[in-house]
Amino acid sequence: MSVKTETLDVLIIGSGLAGLVVAETISRELNVGIFSKGEATESNSYRAQGGVAAALSTNDSWKKHWRDTLEAGDDHNDNSNTATLTKAGQEAVHMLAAWGVLFDHDEHGFQLGKEGAHEHPRIVHAGGDRTGEALVHTLMERVRDHVQFFNEETVLSLLKVDRLCVGVKTVNKNGENRFWKAPHTVLATGGAGQLFSQTTNHAFATGDGYALAYRAGAILRDMEFIQFHPTLLATDTGAADLITEAVRGAGGRLVKSDGSRVMAHHPKGDLAGRDIVARAIAAARSEGREVFLDLSPVSHLAERFPGVASLCKIYGYSSQLPVAPGAHFMMGGVAATPDGKTNVPGLYTVGEVASTGVHGANRLASNSLLEAVVFGRKLGRRLLAHPRKRPAVFRTREEPSVTGTLPTKAEIKQVMDEACGVNRNAKTLQEAVDFFNLYSPESLQSDDPHIQESSNMALIAALITNAALARTESRGSHYREDHPMKKQAWDGASLTWPQIPAEGGIGIR
Ligand SMILES: Cc1cc2nc3c(=O)[nH]c(=O)nc-3n(C[C@H](O)[C@H](O)[C@H](O)COP(=O)(O)OP(=O)(O)OC[C@H]3O[C@@H](n4cnc5c(N)ncnc54)[C@H](O)[C@@H]3O)c2cc1C
């Protein structure tokens, strides 16, 4: 049976900040469609609280920001791409302000927050802790009249002719399939926090983009590096909302039930790197001791952190919130240049799903919104500078679904919680690898978006567990109890799929 085929200049998969910035850059000149799994505002970008990192104060500089980013990344960053990102910080914030984002100000100009592992206050925010909302609304308003939004239209697969990516196959909320052709397809699908039971991520963050890219032959790398945010509100039903690190930057302290400080042992105290704080909280909780975020030293809480204040109200806490770590951000992803080029011609990527090496083995707080803006802009400019003819007519027909057995989402989460969380070891990782080996999700294609989502999750979970087992050291967010030290032998080494010779580079110059 043939299905409807439509043609655009650029297909953007994802309506988060990264996709919206690309659209803002190109949509007055090119015919652009943006696809999303739900409503356009349903994304991790919309949920972002703390803000955008940039060296804006007089005693700060992009080099200091760069150094902090490399230190957090634990010797695993691409130094040059990281410099490109941090150098562009100031300009990016001014550009966003010029576009209409109402960042919070004080008497000195932008009000700058401080977050973990940043040497200086350098986080700009909007509406207190509602930065993501402000960014997404502003961008949506700017592109609304120039792009077509295809909400509740899930991308099931990327279409290829020979090596070239020529479009996508989607399914909409009525279960109808459509094929879309375009010379440029942009993956801006965000992360994969939903692989774990405790996560800050939106329910749509099931790692679809990694799986779409993998099946289309794109190179994935560094999948073992997953950041766990230390402070999710711990409720009776498991961890819930994120409590931004900026609260600790404003004086909030982590304490145990006897009032002792959790981070007393660390020189950076409550603002130590996220992996360190997450492990300290996990260790206390594994001894059966609850950990709380003490908000009493934070002045003007309701004004500065309205989201956190409303959480306190909803859950009935006054000043001490019980907290637990949860999956937050994926450092690895689809290998790409800062302007979004992948090894598959016609396929580009940006935002959390992309891996340009700027986050190393552990992301510095508030660098990902910056990445979405800076690299989204670069990708947009690349597309304008390298126009391509629309793909020649190709036959599109309904692909038969390839079915098979899959683990349930609950099973995937349980295995990932046990094997790939804050602490990892060979035994549970090997069990997880064996578990995922029982299935073949890479070849499972379905027109049912829920089955496809499970297949994507199982595929990505398998890649992550294999990588985490193979990396026999601890680095950044990847902590192996059986290999607790960083090892020189692993310096500069990335685990990639498909596996390529180290000297071969990633072939995306
Ligand atoms: C609670 C929270 C707070 C955060 N706070 C900050 C912060 O203060 N500062 C900071 O720098 N970072 C923060 N982050 C991280 C940051 O928000 C994300 O890394 C960033 O927003 C990712 O943007 P993105 O555009 O790449 O993806 P997202 O914003 O996640 O958007 C992904 C889009 O892809 C779409 N999509 C996915 N799969 C498909 C498919 N198969 N078909 C169609 N569409 C698809 C989704 O529907 C969605 O529209 C936070 C993250 C969370 C979860």
Chain-wise SSE layout:
Layout lengths: L4 E3 L2 E4 L3 H10 L5 E4 L8 H4 L4 E2 L8 H12 L5 H9 L1 H11 L5 E2 L2 E2 L1 E2 L9 E2 L6 H13 L3 E4 L2 E9 L2 E9 L4 E5 L2 E4 L20 H8 L4 E2 L4 E10 L2 E5 L3 H4 L3 E4 L17 H13 L4 E4 L6 H4 L1 H10 L4 E11 L2 E3 L11 E3 L4 E2 L11 H19 L23 H12 L5 H12 L11 H22 L25 E2 L12
Parallel strand pairs: 1-12, 2-3, 2-13, 3-9, 13-21, 20-22
Antiparallel strand pairs: 4-8, 5-6, 7-8, 10-11, 11-12, 14-20, 14-23, 15-16, 15-19, 17-18, 18-19
Helix pairs in contact: 1-6, 1-12, 3-4, 7-15, 13-14, 13-15, 14-15
The structure holds flavin-adenine dinucleotide.
Flavin-adenine dinucleotide (FAD) binds next to helix 1, helix 2, helix 6, strand 10 and helix 7.
EC number: 1.4.3.16
Protein name: L-aspartate oxidase
InterPro entries: FAD-dep_OxRdtase_2_FAD-bd, FAD/NAD-bd_sf, Fum_R/Succ_DH_flav-like_C_sf, Fum_Rdtase/Succ_DH_flav-like_C, NadB, Succ_DH/fumarate_Rdtase_cat_sf
Give the CATH level 1 class of the domain at 5-190 and 331-385.
Alpha Beta
Kindly estimate the percentage of residues that lie in beta strands according to DSSP. Answer: 15-25%
Superfamily at the CATH H level of the domain at 5-190 and 331-385?
A: FAD/NAD(P)-binding domain
The biggest beta sheet is recorded as: 5 strands, parallel
Assembly status: single chain
Uncertain ranges: 501-509
Report the total helices: 15
Termini separation: 40 Å
General form: globular
